[in-house]
Amino acid sequence: MTSLPHTRGTARLGLVIDLDICVGCHACAVNCKEWNTGGVAAPLTDLKPYDADPDGVWFNRIHSYEVNGEDARTVHFPRSCLHCEEPACVTVCPTGASYKRAEDGIVLVNEDLCIGCKLCSWACPYGAREYDLDAGVMKKCTLCIDRIYNEHLDEAARVPACVATCPTSARHFGDLGDPDSKVSQLVREREGYDLMPEMGYKPTNKYLPPRPRQRDAASIGAPALEPLPQAGGLLGLIDRLLSG
Amino acid sequence: MHPASSVIVFTTLSGVGYGLLGWLGLYAAAGLLPMQPLFALVAMLVGLGSVTVGLLSSTLHLGHPERAWRALSQWRTSWLSREGVASIVTYVPALLFGIGWVIGGALRDWLMLIGPVLTLCAIVTVICTAYIYRSLKPIPRWSNGWVVPNYLALAAMTGALLLAGLARVFVVPLSGIDILAGVAVIVALVLKLGYWWSTDRAKAISTPESATGLGAIGAVRLLEAPHTSENYLLKEMGYRVARKHATKLRIIAVMLAFLVPLALLIAAWQWPMLALPFTVVAPLIALVGVLTERWLFFAEARHVVTLYYGRRLDPAA
User: Fold this and answer.
1) pLDDT at B77 (0 to 100)
2) Which residues of A touch B309 (CB under 8 A)?
């Protein structure tokens, strides 16, 4: 059903992405592709992968921005499905292929029902949905639903592939519906925000803003280095000759 | 937005067909429908034919056309689904109306009853089509109050022009159809100009700053795109038409869809000797004009996802 669930559980699984920490290495996008091309939405088709203009389905795209102003900086910006509370991608679906899970808020596509009309991708402001030209169906981030509930994996590995692989821990996974969860606390402490709130989609995923830039090296209380004593003998002679 | 030819043909032809059927229903309701079987047969075939070809065309851009029937299920939330249901429901009064009209005779009263139902169904279907676009918030050129009146007016206009041409060919009295067509052309022209005037000036609500949430630091500029070649998002949502081409195409659309057909209607009234060729050519030229207009409706529309790729939505940008 593409009606949004009437009775919803309290859980809102999602991601918190720290733009202060992300170094733009694309590891999350690569591991996402790696896992999901064998996962529930497999394959993530690549067309002409070895040509000049390859084109393929990815659930995660890493943009890099230059932000100008007094506090100018470069910000690396991973972009993926935000698993919105008001996902118009779901309600516009004419077949019931797109749906939002009542129990945890994850937005999914049932590929067996999808007719490939692409309307959901038009309805998404965030570019989260990419059409698989080869399969003729729409594909999107599943929040690695085949990892997070997978009892065959070690408990530590039951997080989305992008979170598992991030070398700088810029990505956090958890229940944003629980105000006491670690991710909710992080959002409160760091003033996490929604992308394009003016669209009214109420994204679940939150972004943490870059911290103010430090202009001077912090004082760490260490004394200044003392000058080295003058060496004598042969080494002292060489030192004097070379310094001269 | 990528101007897919299947969708351009679908919205234009279904508009023509529903416009024609809608006017026929009104004429029947007013008791002014000429009971001439051959005219009835051809008018119904043209009306239902346009609608059917349009609907079939719309399935051509689907990844799985064989599953198109599933699109009828989600009418509670989806305008695309509602459009599908409304278009199929409209076949019922259309076929009943057509049979009654072709057979004629004692069924005249029946037509007065079923006519308004047909008109209502045709209007509802066109509104549903327009709302597929009207309801998409990420596309500012579509998500505004001008879209639905434009679709309705263009459907009424093309339908009336076609009906006027057919009435002339079959030499049947369809009182006032030329005047109705002329008025519809003027109304549609005013609404189209209003759409362009308004959407060209609309201030973009979303910006690269609101899309990334980095506006508090400063102006956001794309430094590195996520990928080196165009992906689905840019091919589907990032279509761009050069402004100089768009201006020329708007002039062509205004000429062919509105001004030339209007001139032909006036010429037909002025020189009755040439009324037949003029009224027959008018809807054909208008059709080419509306196809151009519909191409622009897609090609000029910008999607907010392009903000992530460093573009801006302001028409001036």
Assistant:
1) 96
2) 63
